[in-house]
Structure formats: C-alpha cells, structure tokens
Amino acid sequence: MNTFVLKLFFSGLMAFIPSQNGNEVTVVLLNVAHDYALSDSTTLDHHTPLLLARAGSCSGDCPTRDADVAQYVFADQSEATALDSLEAAVSGGGAWMLSGSDLSLQKGSESAADLPALVLRNDARGSEIIPTSATEREDISWISSLHTLCPTCTLDTDVLGSTPPAIVAARFHIRNGKLFTYSVARIGSNVTPAHFERLDGTGTVSSYSQAVASWVGAELQITGDDVQIVEDKFDSSTGRSMTLTPDGDGKVEVAVLNLPPFVPPSSPNMTSGTGKHFEIYYDLTTNAPSQSARLVPKTGAASGAPSYDTVDWSTIHPSTTLWSDLLNALRLNIGRTVYEQALCPPATWP
Length: 350
What we know:
The protein is mainly β. The chain has 6 helices and 19 strands. The termini are far apart.
C-alpha cells in the first residue's frame, strides 16, 4: 500500500488547547471584530482565517481561483495576477475562507489504514530559555503559555463546545501525527527570548521569558492513497470536504492561517516591536484581567532572566528540512513572513 507525508502549518491569531488525555489538540482561530480596541486605544487589524492546501490532486470542494482569498493573500497584485498566483500556490489542492468551521482530518477510505495517533513533541527542550539545536526547537513548550502568564485565569469551556462563543472563528482538531514547533520568532540574527509585560510598560514584568513559537507544525506519515479534510459548521449547516492525493514527491501540504492584511517582505526580516494582539487571547477565559493589566510579549529577555548561549537563528531552522513548496508559493516561507516583522505569536492553554 502507498505511503505519503501530510504536513500541516499553523500561524497567526490562534490558541492550541490540548485535551486532558492528550489525544487531541484543538486549534482555536480567534475572530477579531473590525473595531476591537486594545488597551492603548488602537484597534487590532482584522484577521482572516484561511485553509490552503497543495497536493497532487483534489476531489470535493477544491477552489483554486477564489477572488476573495487571492486578493487577501496577494494584496499587492492585480486581481488577475493574484488569481494566477493563488492557483499556482494551491496546485492540486484548494483554498477556503473559514467561518464557523470545525475542521478535522479523516482517512481517505474505509479500507485505508488508520491515521497515526497524536504525539506531542514535548520531550526535546534543553535547560536554556532558547532552543540551541533544531531538535530542541521542535518542543511545543516554545508556544507562549497563556496559563503561565495568568495562572488565576480559567478557560471558558464553551470555547470547546458544540456552539462556541463569537470569539471563535474556526477550529482545527488535531488528533493525529506529531505536533511540534516549526519556527521560533526571529528577533535579530541570533535566537533571542521574548519577555511579557503590560502594553504600557507599567507594573511588574513576568519572570516568564523564553523564545516564542511563530509557526507550529504537524506531520503525519499516512498509509493509503489520500487524506480528507472535513469541515462541519457550528450552526449545523452544510460543510465541505476535500480529498487530497500526494504530489510526485509523496507529500500533501496544508496551511491554516489567521493573519491580518499583509504584503510579505522581499527578503528575510527580523522581528521587532510588541505583540499587541496577545491581549485578545485573555478573552478565551472567564475571569480575564482588565485589558490594561494583560501581559503581552515584547522582544528581548526579561531583566534577571537566565543567561543563554549565542545560537544563530538559521542553525536551528535548517532550510532543507523546513522547506515547503506551499509556503514558498504563498511567500510565507520561514524567515520572510509577516510575523517576522511583528511579534505576534500563537498561544497555548494551559
């Protein structure tokens, strides 16, 4: 029987919530109202949840020339060019805008082997506050921990319910494969931690200081001819599905994004500034602190944080291992993304 690799990439405004038994991680893509105000009175840019797939072939609902998606992902191009660029990027796959979507993976046929069980890469971290090797980089503990920043907060369980609150735009249920940190934020040429404090800089800086994930990956070794992505709807209306077969290199690639409007830089960029959008993650809890008291990531280690080795950022992100045809075609390959210009990491609970 045939085997192939499914690669999943996640980036943007989303929270990773593991189940208590560790058999599932629900990725919650947050809905950002156009007028969502931050504690500094600025508004948070609207984010658009997307799923983009590239494969050998696709059956089911497999649009490749969606004008809304094309003009969002390729905002700097004319409509005709953007449509061509999207079609090339999702060759053999499809592109969906997500709204009220519950997404999951299924094997392509009843006769195919079961998809591999979920494995959380949580055993690779060393003793430092940064990863010092590509292996250590994979540990999921680099995903910023909301519970560590707010230990008195309680997750709103409705976020995981059948009809989630309005803050949930979409969810992706990861029940299979290896989940790991794909990339940590690029703060300068060397691997550098972030620290967490209030947006206005007042109050106490958290002792929690570490490198933070900017992309999260999942990888499945599949025995069979294809794999299916299924969308159910929060309101029980009709969903969609796409069945993907591998390309000539034996792989399928899927990106799940929740990004603001962007035009990727033409060359590698370094992260700078403050992760303002992190304030909205606290809205996933039932007893969130006031906005002005919420801690957000800022570049650089906290004062008094442990010392750490000098490690070149590219050393722990080997380009051959992390190369993606899909991300490259979307101009989102590692080191060039919009989230290497601003510190906007995903979060995890707990």
